[in-house]
Recover the amino acids of this structure.
């Protein structure tokens, strides 16, 4: 296979990225759980709510959501409509998918630079008074992660296309 | 012109199988760069699409269901239902419906229901000699109850876009969920008599009561979950989001201390599992935010408002009918979360002007969206069951359509009698 070396590298890149996303994302989820339980405890037992709890949880939730979205993209698991595409042949389906994926890469890539520029204009957060740019930095990160994940998917699709071609050739040769 | 490009590009990308969320982001990107607006601002819009405390309940509800599925809770609920309704003709069919109702009180999404407890009921039905297609259809139809009886992810999203109280919505869903369950059970009963489906044979009332009692004892603690959730919200002790966290804690305590089927490692596994799946729902929210930004900029709400007024005049029932037809069609094409986020703000002024209660309407829309979830071409639940049980789509449809019609009848009743929704929240929140 022509693509095998490249493909192996890509799959490794993906699994490393996904591991990182999973680690940070599920930690966010766990911290949210603990924070909220603590907040309920503090409010009722000590009648002293943690004033920054809601804000912190919001930010953790946003980080988790976007990282999870990137992770799901790595598995190619986002909700899509396949009813129309499934009418096509297997080969055309793959080609359509490649085109869609490439459009997606372009879209997310376009967002990276503007969202980086946006970071410079942000101020401090309301409750915790931390610079918001450290919170919003998830946006360019996620756009970049999306691009990488989709590109890996595209390379896999090309491998599948090559496989289909081989199979077709074998079937013809055998006949 | 710009609007046409925007809508056309979205429909094309959507039809050619781009993920719905990304298709929304892409078509809005096209529009925004054509208008020469700043993309950095759009990135902020996406961020703010998730910046809402209520939304944190979504992963928590998924986590609760996940933990419940991991501990042997599903099994216990199934046994309880089996000793409760297994003796009615069509026994396991009713068990399937009632387990869905009970599990609905612990989970907020229909897909989670068919993947967890739905599989158990389906397998049991097939083993007992029910037709596969019939069993699958009952599983699919009863899974619609999941997000109608609280907790409910679509209701959280509805509450977010309309600013109504999640608590009231949750209580509003209780009776409609039961009505739908009842309607389905009547249907299962009739069909079972006709086709001679099996039931559990009752030896004596004493044995029945004894079995029921023990099954109830074993299932008692999981059965409390919805009470804790709703009780916490009702008493004003906690917000919905905090209640969702307490539900997680409760399910964890059940699995860890009571049943001892869960270790800390399993819980971490659940966290990871939730992380690995929730992204596909949650990306829809920022995507819908930028999408609706464009729709607002182009005044699409107004266009739809005018169109519907032209169609239905001033007749409030015609307005309700047209809104429902709109949502049914949307439900067939797209995801419930997306439909609620994008189109509820559009029709809300119309609905409010014609004197419908926003809580009543919220429950109607969620039921409507769930029915859409069971129909082709994009019925997530339908596709999930087809995928898991390896059944053909067409064969299931043949068994499923009478149930879908019954669900629509139930929906009509709920629309026409607002008290079915409003009785409980009105009595509680005075």
């Amino acid at each position: 296979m022509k693509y095998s070396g490249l493909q192996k590298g890509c799959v490794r890149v993906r699994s490393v990225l996904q591991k990182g996303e999973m680690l940070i994302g599920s930690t966010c989820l766990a911290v949210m759980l603990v924070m909220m339980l603590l907040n309920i405890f503090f409010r009722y037992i000590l009648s002293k709510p943690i004033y920054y709890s809601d804000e912190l949880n919001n930010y953790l939730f946003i980080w988790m959501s976007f990282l999870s979205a990137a992770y799901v993209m790595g598995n190619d698991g986002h909700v899509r409509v396949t009813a129309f595409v499934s009418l096509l042949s297997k080969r055309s389906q793959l080609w359509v998918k490649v085109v869609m994926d490439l459009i997606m890469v372009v879209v997310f890539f376009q967002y990276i630079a503007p969202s980086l520029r946006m970071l410079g204009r942000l101020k401090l957060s309301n409750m915790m008074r931390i610079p918001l740019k450290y919170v919003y930095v998830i946006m360019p990160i996620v756009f970049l992660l999306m691009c990488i994940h989709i590109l890996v998917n595209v390379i896999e699709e090309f491998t599948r296309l090559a496989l289909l071609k081989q199979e077709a050739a074998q079937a013809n040769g055998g006949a | 012109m710009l609007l046409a490009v925007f809508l056309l590009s979205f429909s094309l990308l959507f039809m050619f199988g781009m993920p719905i969320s990304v298709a929304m982001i892409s078509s809005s990107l096209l529009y925004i760069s054509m208008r020469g607006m700043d993309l950095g601002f759009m990135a902020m819009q996406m961020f703010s699409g998730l910046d809402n405390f209520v939304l944190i309940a979504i992963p928590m509800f998924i986590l609760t269901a996940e933990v419940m599925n991991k501990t042997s809770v599903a099994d216990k609920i199934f046994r309880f239902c089996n000793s409760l309704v297994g003796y009615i003709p069509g026994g396991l069919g009713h068990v399937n419906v009632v387990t869905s109702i009970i599990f609905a009180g612990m989970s907020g999404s229909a897909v989670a229901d068919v993947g967890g407890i739905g599989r158990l009921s389906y397998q049991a039905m097939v083993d007992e000699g029910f037709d596969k297609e019939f069993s699958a259809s009952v599983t699919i139809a009863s899974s619609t109850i999941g997000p109608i009886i609280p907790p409910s992810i679509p209701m959280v999203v509805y509450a977010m876009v309309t600013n109504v109280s999640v608590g009231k919505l949750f209580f509003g869903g209780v009776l409609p969920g039961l009505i739908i369950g009842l309607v389905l059970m009547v249907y299962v009963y009739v069909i079972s008599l006709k086709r001679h489906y099996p039931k559990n044979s009752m030896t004596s009332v004493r044995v029945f009561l004894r079995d029921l009692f023990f099954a109830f004892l074993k299932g008692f603690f999981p059965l409390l979950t919805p009470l804790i959730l709703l009780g916490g919200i009702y008493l004003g002790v906690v917000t919905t989001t905090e209640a969702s966290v307490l539900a997680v804690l409760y399910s964890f305590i059940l699995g860890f201390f009571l049943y001892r089927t869960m270790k800390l490692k399993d819980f971490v596994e659940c966290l990871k599992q939730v992380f690995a799946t929730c992204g596909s729902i949650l990306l829809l929210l920022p995507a819908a935010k930028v999408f609706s930004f464009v729709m607002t900029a182009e005044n699409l709400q107004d266009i739809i408002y005018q169109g519907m007024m032209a169609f239905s005049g001033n007749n409030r029932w015609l307005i309700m009918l047209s809104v429902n037809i709109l949502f049914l069609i949307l439900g067939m094409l797209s995801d419930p979360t997306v439909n609620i986020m994008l189109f509820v703000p559009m029709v809300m002024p119309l609905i409010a002007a014609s004197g419908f209660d926003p809580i009543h309407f919220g429950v109607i829309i969620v039921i409507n969206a769930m029915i859409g979830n069971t129909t082709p071409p994009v019925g997530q639940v339908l596709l999930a069951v087809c995928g898991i049980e390896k059944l053909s789509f067409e064969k299931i449809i043949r068994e499923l359509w009478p149930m879908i019609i019954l669900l629509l009848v139930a929906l009509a009743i709920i629309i026409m009698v607002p008290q079915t929704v409003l009785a409980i929240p009105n009595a509680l929140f005075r």
Remarks:
- Chain B touches chain A through 62 residues (CB under 8 Å).
- The two ends of chain B are 50 Å apart (CA to CA).
